[in-house]
Design the sequence.
């Protein structure tokens, strides 16, 4: 949510800043802005809309020679929280004298009070943002030492921030700080970069410093000097980025989403690598960092997450109960924190998050920690806040996920939850035979996904039958119920079709009233102990004129009720959630493509939601 880029070095800053913003655009794309340090003072341009609009403006207003002479700058791509996406609300924001510019990701919770105080002193605000109050506050404190001024200002600030600040009076310096919103510094040769996430840095350097909450850094072309808010020096390690530049490029695919869908055989293989013990029918998850005794003593597992990650947790819920006979529950992270949850030292709280940044999930981790629960992160982004605060857990290793609609993170999350369930089932309900059989099924996941991907063209054909409809239902039972929710979520977020996921048996308790002739009803009717019941529910829809699209098991029982079928390979019903989800991702993708939607960046959304 909002992307920040900074550059201080010896080359022209604008190509680096705009290139970085393009990489971060998935974090927010309603407006963008850039400030350069120049011999004439600070130069700023802002534009409503995508980064391309800002780039046009930069080309039109700043000559090549002017750009070439500016080697320091900060830039921002916005996802509006306070104030509409207008040029006045776009970052960078200025102090009263216009000598300072600041970009911000996060939310300043006490901005009203700060604003009122500043207005009482004569400040006239030019935007509706929370950020402008911070920029003006820094200006108030600035007596020739920007870092000091930033620290003094931040000591007044409540809320979450990642900020980068430049001053006209301190050439060659950027001051950055973070609390609750991510910031990473790239350390190059004679240049440093700043970004909200490493995807904006990888084409420049692999050496990065992840800032911790409370860190303030003075960054120059050759140095990074970090202190806390009490001016005490802080030592931070330089880490190495392990992914390739190609991971953040489309690589010939029309959209990141399609590329990421097709990456799933590999991303799931990475999630499983070295973690499946096929000889003993269990999983090796060293990151869980718990002894066998501790795991056996667990009385309950509570999964928290938001959006797609929440749906992955709902699949995990079935796996934990069925395999490990362990009481499991899933809670929306946003709810967990405020319901005064009943958790203690014998409960395991698993925080599921692709980005590792989602504010509600992070708040849930902190709440669970306060209550003394054992915490684990199930996170994709290495070094992210949730991964670090959880302290232990399992990384997905899915690689960067750029498309706003999550795909490979979901399948990675479900795969790892199956591994965790397998591991926790040791000494509990699961027999050795079932453990061995299930481990072998999980190991087949990459090929099961490939089998679904091979049907891309057939799924695109099914999408044609859905494209004209403004409403759709997705139905499933057992572990396929959350897959139905996820399929509906994918469709609505990228194609703007109103889609509802329901437990197949629940439809007749109300929602069936919405069925009209021809309405697409996607039914997850794979081989499972409840298949007959599911098909019965599909018949109920068919009888009311629905257009039934069934996801069925290849070679399995015929779904005579279906108008169209999508095949998934035969496999264990828990494992089948993954190939079924891939089929629904492709279905949503093709509907959105046929409807001409901006697939990677749907309206109103942002990839990581760092506000509650
Ligand atoms: C946003 C994204 C969703 C995502 C959710 C949770 O709403 O648009 O795709 O599922 O956040 O994100 P997380 O990074 O915590 O998995």
Sequence:
């Amino acid at each position: 949510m909002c992307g920040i880029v900074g550059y201080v070095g010896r080359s022209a800053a604008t190509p680096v800043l705009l290139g970085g913003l393009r990489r971060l655009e998935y974090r927010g794309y309603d407006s963008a802005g850039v400030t350069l340090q120049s011999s004439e003072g600070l130069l700023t341009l802002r534009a409503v809309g995508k980064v391309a609009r800002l780039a046009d403006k930069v080309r039109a207003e700043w000559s090549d020679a002017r750009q070439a002479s500016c080697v320091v700058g900060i830039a921002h791509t916005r996802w509006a929280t306070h104030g509409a996406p207008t040029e006045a609300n776009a970052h960078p924001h200025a102090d009263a004298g216009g000598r300072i510019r600041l970009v911000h990701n996060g939310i300043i919770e006490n901005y009203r009070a700060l604003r009122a105080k500043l207005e009482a002193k004569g400040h006239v605000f030019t935007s509706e943002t929370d950020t402008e109050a911070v920029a003006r506050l820094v200006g108030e404190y600035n007596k020739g030492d920007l870092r000091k001024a930033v620290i003094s200002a931040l000591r007044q600030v409540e809320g979450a921030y990642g900020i980068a600040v430049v001053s006209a009076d301190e050439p060659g310096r950027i001051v950055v700080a973070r609390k609750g919103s991510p910031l990473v510094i790239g350390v190059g040769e004679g240049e440093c970069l700043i970004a909200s996430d490493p995807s904006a840095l990888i084409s420049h350097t692999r050496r990065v410093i992840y800032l911790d909450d409370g860190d303030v850094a003075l960054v120059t072309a050759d140095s990074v000097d970090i202190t806390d808010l009490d001016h005490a020096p802080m030592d931070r390690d330089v880490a190495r980025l392990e992914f390739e530049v190609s991971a953040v490029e489309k690589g010939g695919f029309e959209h990141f989403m399609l590329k990421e869908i097709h990456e799933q055989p590999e991303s799931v293989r990475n999630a499983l690598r070295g973690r499946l013990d096929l000889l003993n029918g269990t999983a090796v998850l060293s990151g869980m960092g718990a002894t066998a005794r501790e795991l056996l003593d667990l009385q309950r597992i509570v999964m928290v997450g938001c959006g797609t990650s929440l749906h992955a947790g709902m699949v995990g819920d079935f796996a934990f109960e069925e395999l490990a006979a362990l009481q499991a529950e899933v809670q929306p992270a946003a709810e967990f924190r405020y319901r005064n949850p009943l958790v203690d030292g014998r409960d395991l709280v698993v925080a599921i998050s692709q980005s590792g940044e989602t504010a509600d999930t992070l708040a849930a981790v902190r709440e669970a920690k306060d209550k003394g629960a054992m915490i684990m992160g199930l996170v994709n982004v290495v070094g992210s806040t949730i991964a670090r605060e959880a302290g232990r857990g399992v990384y997905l290793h899915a690689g960067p996920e750029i498309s706003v609609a999550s795909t490979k993170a979901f399948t990675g999350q479900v795969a790892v939850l199956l591994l965790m369930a397998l591991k926790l089932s040791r000494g509990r309900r699961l027999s050795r035979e079932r453990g061995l059989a299930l481990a072998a099924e999980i190991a087949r996941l990459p090929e099961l996904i490939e089998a679904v991907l091979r049907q891309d063209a057939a799924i695109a054909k099914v999408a044609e039958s859905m494209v004209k409809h403004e409403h759709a239902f997705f139905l499933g039972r057992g572990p396929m119920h959350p897959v139905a929710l996820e399929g509906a979520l994918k469709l609505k977020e990228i194609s703007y079709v109103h889609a509802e996921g329901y437990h197949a048996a629940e439809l007749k308790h109300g929602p069936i009233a919405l069925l009209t002739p021809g309405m697409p009803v996607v039914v997850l009717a794979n081989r499972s102990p409840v298949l007959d019941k599911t098909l019965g529910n599909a018949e109920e829809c068919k009888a009311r004129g629905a257009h039934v699209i069934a996801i069925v098991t290849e070679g399995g029982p015929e779904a005579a009720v279906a108008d169209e079928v999508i095949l998934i390979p035969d496999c264990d019903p828990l494992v089948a959630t993954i190939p079924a989800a891939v089929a629904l991702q492709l279905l949503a993708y093709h509907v959105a493509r046929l409807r001409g939607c901006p697939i990677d960046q749907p309206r109103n959304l942002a990839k990581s939601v760092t506000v509650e």
